[in-house]
Design brief:
The chain is of the alpha/beta class. The chain is built from 20 helices and 27 strands. The strands form five sheets. Strands 3-2-4-1-10-9-11-15 form an eight-stranded antiparallel sheet. Strands 5-6-7-8-12-13-14 form a seven-stranded antiparallel sheet. Helix 16 (454-467) packs across helix 20 (576-594). Bound molecules: fructose -6-phosphate.
């Protein structure tokens, strides 16, 4: 959940590149930050509670010196509140080394006792400081990498760390066991970062460290070892993301930029995969063959948050189009219950980052129980992609806004493609049926664009203005649009901090209807076919009790019944979630903006939840 950067350069200065790296990693955690530089006279450390700007201000005010090697960190507190002292990097008593860390050291209390008894003085409440003293004690003699190896042998837990030791030849070592870490060589030297976003301004050739890897960064080479010190071969992968995609351009927030990218995301995720001749989709990734898919008896989806909502939609799609039974669970629940997986289960994880701790653990559990594993994921080289038997990449490009938008739409598109692929592989869909579904997908792009027109945006602002002051929101949907109700509520609560609940519309009279009153807005996603009528009666029930209703969707009759109508172009039912979610994303964005919230960095949240 924290962001780590580091570098060792041949010449020049490391600080600016590190700060830029921290800026793009701030989405991982943003309650405090810090840097350490290997200066000629020893370690120089500056850290500050608050956003990265606070650190930048202190660095400028103190004319903080620069150097050829350094490490930096942006924190999301786990042990100890976000204060200057608890911010990383941490140093040992004699300030011989500095450490930044993402993760949790489980046996830190016993290590802390032992180290205190032998003279280490602890300044912070963090588990990381224990690791710092431990490495420093081991580093009294020999190389830093050997000290790190010995220290890690004593540690239980999850970590991505970077360690810096100043000297005539500064040393930078990093290690991974759990949270992600990648490294790369550029013309200027070697870089490390929690994710590729921090590396792509310097190099597109990236090594994704694996669990148990310890890497020593030198100006012209990188040496990777296992925890026993044996040398390992790790090859760099070429990353196709652009440095420009990492910037906000002229947009006020990443979230709104990413919402506007969604029509392009549809094209990037799908269009190169559509094969009209066979009425099928062709995945460039291995593992989705007819043979594999014909052997699937059941699908088990595991995911968290927004990705789980994509999972609910995927269940409708796969059951509806391919007629394979699908179970679905929160990854955090699945991993700790005692699930029963029938032979022939395909476990599918859905994740933007591919690093969410619970989702990874759930997939590992499914594998232990005999399932084949696959994922729908946005980040090439991520742990999930590397660990699964098959991956389906969403190609949404880097998503930086903490509230997921374009990655969600890409997951919905990927799920649609997957349902067609399974349906075709198993003979549930004919080539003609497949062709119609592919064509419907192509026609979606202009429809998505129409929901991002100036006129439409102005209407969303008006609606947001009228409802920004209510007590709370209820989001209702049915069938394939029930997950969109869940997603609408999640988006609103996470960025505007307003209370919002997503419900299956049919459940309304079993409880939530008690909430209905003039200051509770109900957002209803209109239905298709049989369900359209049912949703209409939900709207009438809310209105009869004096509750304002915003209806979103393509069913005209429902729209006419509501106080506010947000008309969405018509499309086949399977694709309707992709259109319906756009106004809900915009509504959350505008409500949060009008309420003055920090949209790209909502309080208490981090984008990539790499710890439990
Ligand atoms: C909400 C949001 C989170 C993530 C969840 C899973 O806007 O972004 O709910 O969807 O933390 O993250 P990934 O998809 O990276 O596994």
């Amino acid at each position: 959940m924290c962001g780590i950067v580091g570098a060792i350069l041949k010449e020049g200065a490391v600080l600016r590149g590190m700060i830029e790296g921290l800026r793009v990693l701030e989405y991982r955690g943003y309650d405090s930050s810090g840097v350490a530089i290997a200066g000629p006279q020893g370690l120089l450390v500056q850290k500050k509670a608050g956003r990265l700007e606070e650190l930048e201000n202190v660095l400028a005010e103190t004319q903080f010196p620069d150097g050829l090697a350094g490490i930096g960190h942006t924190r999301w507190a786990t042990h100890g509140p976000p204060t200057d002292v608890n911010a990383h990097p941490h140093t040992d008593t004699d300030r011989t080394i500095a450490v930044v860390h993402n993760g949790i050291i489980e046996n830190y209390l016993e290590l802390r006792e032992e180290l205190s008894a032998s003279g280490s003085r602890f300044l912070s409440d963090t588990d990381t400081e224990v690791l710092t003293h431990l490495i420093a004690r081991e580093a009294l003699e020999g190389s830093l990498v050997d000290a790190v190896l010995r220290a890690l042998g004593r540690v239980r837990g999850h970590y991505a760390i970077a360690v810096l030791r100043p000297g005539a030849q500064p040393e930078v070592v990093c290690a991974r066991h759990g949270p992600p870490l990648c490294i790369g060589l550029s013309k200027e030297g070697a870089w490390l970062g929690s994710d590729i976003l921090a590396l792509i301004p310097h190099t597109r050739n990236v090594i994704f460290l694996e669990d148990g890897d310890v890497a020593e960064l030198k100006v012209d080479s990188i040496v990777v070892r296992d925890l026993e010190g044996n040398l390992l071969e790790r090859t760099a992968q070429r990353v196709d993301w652009d440095a420009e995609q990492v910037g906000k351009g002229s947009w006020p927030h990443f979230m709104i930029k990413e919402i506007h990218e969604q029509p392009d995301v549809l094209a990037q995720t799908a269009f190169h995969r559509l094969d009209d001749e066979s009425g099928d989709v062709k995945f460039e990734e291995a593992g989705w063959t007819d043979e594999v898919l014909q052997g699937v008896e059941r699908i088990q989806i595991v995911a968290c948050g927004t990705a789980l909502h994509a999972g609910y939609t995927a269940r409708h799609l796969i059951e509806g189009l391919a007629r394979v039974p699908v179970d679905l669970d929160f990854a955090s629940e699945f991993r700790y219950r005692d699930p029963i997986l029938v032979p022939g289960t395909l476990a599918i994880g859905i994740s933007q980052s591919g690093e969410t701790a619970d989702s990874l653990a759930a997939l590992r559990r499914a594998r232990e129980l005999g399932a084949r594993t696959a994922c729908i994921c946005n980040v090439a080289g991520s742990t999930m992609v590397r660990e699964c038997d098959a991956a389906l990449m969403t190609h949404a490009g880097p998503e930086i806004g903490v509230a997921s938008t374009k990655a969600f739409v890409a997951q919905l598109v990927a799920a649609y493609l997957l349902a067609i692929r399974i349906g075709r592989a198993r003979g549930q869909l004919s080539a003609d049926e497949g062709r119609v579904l592919l064509q419907d997908l192509r026609l979606l792009r202009p429809k998505m664009e129409s929901l991002l027109s100036k006129k439409f945006l102005a209407r969303m602002i008006e609606i947001a203005e009228r409802h920004r002051g209510v007590k709370g929101f209820l989001f209702l949907g049915r069938g394939i649009n029930y997950p969109i109700a869940l997603e609408g509520a999640l988006k609103l609560k996470e960025i505007s901090y307003m209370h919002a609940e997503g419900y299956a519309a049919g459940e309304m009279k079993h409880g939530p209807i008690a909430l209905v009153e003039a200051w509770m807005t109900t957002v209803v996603i209109t239905g298709h076919g049989l369900l359209a009528e049912k949703v209409r009666s939900n709207i009438e029930q809310v209105r009869a009790r004096g509750g304002p209703v915003i209806a979103v969707g393509a069913d005209r009759e429902s729209l006419e019944l509501a106080d506010e109508a947000i008309e969405v172009p018509d499309c086949n039912e399977w694709l309707s979630p992709i259109l319906n979610v756009i106004p809900l994303q915009l509504l959350s964005y505008e409500v949060a903006r009008l309420r003055g919230c920090d949209i790209d960095k909502p309080r208490n949240l981090a984008k990539s939840v790499t710890v439990e």
